[in-house]
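To assess whether the prediction recovers the assembly geometry, we first specified each molecular entity separately, as shown.
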Amino acid sequence: MKILVPVKRVVDYNVKVRVKADGTGVDLANVKMSMNPFDEIAIEEAVRLREAGIATEVIAVSCGVTACQETLRTAMAIGADRAILVESDVDLQPLAVAKLIKAVAEKEQPQMVIFGKQAIDDDANQTGQMFAALMGWSQATFASKVVVANGMATVTREIDGGAEIVEFKLPCVITTDLRLNEPRYATLPNIMKAKKKQLDNFKPADLGVDVTPRLTTLKVTEPPKRGAGVKVADVKELVAKLKNEAKVI
Amino acid sequence: MSILVIAEHDNAALKASTLNTVAAAQKIGGEIHVLVAGSGCATVAAAAAKVAGVAKVKLADAAHYADQTAENVAALVVANAAGYTHILAPATGAGKNMLPRVAALLDVAQISEITAVDSPDTFVRPTYAGNAMATVKSSDAVKVITVRTTGFDAVASEGGNAAVESLSAAADTGLTKVTGREIAKSARPELAAAKVIVSGGRGMGSGEKYHALLEPLADKLNAALGASRAAVDAGFVPNDYQVGQTGKIVAPQLYFAIGISGAIQHLAGMKDSKVIVAINKDPDAPIFQVADYGLVADLFQAVPELVAELG
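The predicted structure of the complete assembly is given in tokenized form:
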């Protein structure tokens, strides 16, 4: 079976973003960009399923600007077999991306699509669920363990207060949580090999998808600053402050 | 305007997150209906009917809603969406799982984790782990929204007197089947609803030390236990302890960050707490920049002292 893995190019998770002074967004000039960490986990899981003989091919797909090619090369260096870029300069919102991935899935006919649970830029946590709904497929979001056998998937997923085990027939959508796996580092030989792997390019219009944004960002502001408080000398002083000053105990 | 709020519940009790979501609905303005989908959940519907500000409760009680799978609940919501201008759910594990399906099936955007309402079509939501607050305006006919519960003070759970109306169930999609649930049983309050939270980070050293040191403190304060992502990654505690961008967003009255350096991703989950106490041996740890009370000390000495001092 084929596995499709959508990946997003985002500001690197180590970067502390700054809001632009004019309030139009965050400053992305000369900022390090990387693959969304949850998507790395998704690629790793798909590659492990291929290594275990369950999957036959892993296809990475990214929707966005030309530079997303770098993200796709990283995915192929981790082990994806080939990649597809749906190239657009439009601000692609989750619903548009879900529709683009649906169009790609209709071409490629994967049995499983593994998404990261959320992107660390817009923190939306929507695209996997939206795609599953558009396809009419089962979904297992926030997965911490995936077992595939006999056309069925059994997934342990993180829920508030614990875990839930779900079962369903393929095809399906899985979205990754942190503990699913630890992605491998791309080795230099694999990075070199990834440069030669196939990377196809489409435009949203080629796929017949309208990607017009539905949400307009009116302004972006810094969150209210929380000032540093005081340092206390010892535990006695701390307890006294909590009792008498903050009155919280 | 007419607003549908999807209730969060476990077939026995209405969860507090529903009250915060109704509060967000009140900020939007309009008639508020609450949808209760479950199995054998009449008591939940009765509780929802008493919530202040609720005009009507819609109850869909059927065996295939027992586990409230995203597939089945979303199909039900879409079948009953006509006439509503806004559909809201709490941004909890359940709401985040289910509501994007509703948005996609209605062909509208979802506005995730709003923390404020500017107008009926304009909302504030955090992005980049809470480092940038975006004000977004929706052009869709129906606004599908998840609500960050810490952004809205809960409405009263008593005082309302809404009628309960039964809905016919939508067809079972036959998709996902829930075969097991492991809910950690704990006498402690739930992390998302606790008034006091004691969180430990990588500085705890090990899972054994985490529990040995922090449990007595949590016991004294009737606190929930939390952790940083570093502590989860190190395997000290399970992931459902995690406070942060990729874990739970909390805003208790009192938050203890113990052996936590204060990575951006952790701060995103707890910086709205009323009072923050940090205990860390590194005086330059970023956590001290947000803490109301900072104690530079070895936590292995300070925490037992703190427990003793609290008597």
